[in-house]
Amino acid sequence: MKPALTAVVTTLNEEANIRECLESLAFADRILLVDSFSKDRTVEIARSFPTATVVQREYFGSAAQKNWAMDQIETPWLLIVDADERVPEPLAREIRAL
Fold this sequence. Notes:
By secondary structure, the chain is of the alpha/beta class. Helix content is 37%, strand content 22%. Strands 3-2-1-4 form a four-stranded parallel sheet. It is globular and about 40 Å long.
């Protein structure tokens, strides 16, 4: 049995990017989306993904958001992706194989 992987995405008004980002993370066991109180449909879109957990937290800077998110993770493996990034299928396969 392979160790579980959580993908972390931090967001603020990423409606235009979030669906494709989360779709590219479908290989992850869990997704934690830390949203900084978006005013668009970011949260609504993210909640439509069954493996995504959405939490909202005030923004204190990129590093602060990501460090806070890391403390919430219970899986042994973690991948941090920005909302405007995608994990290509070959990389997703390689990550899962490792």
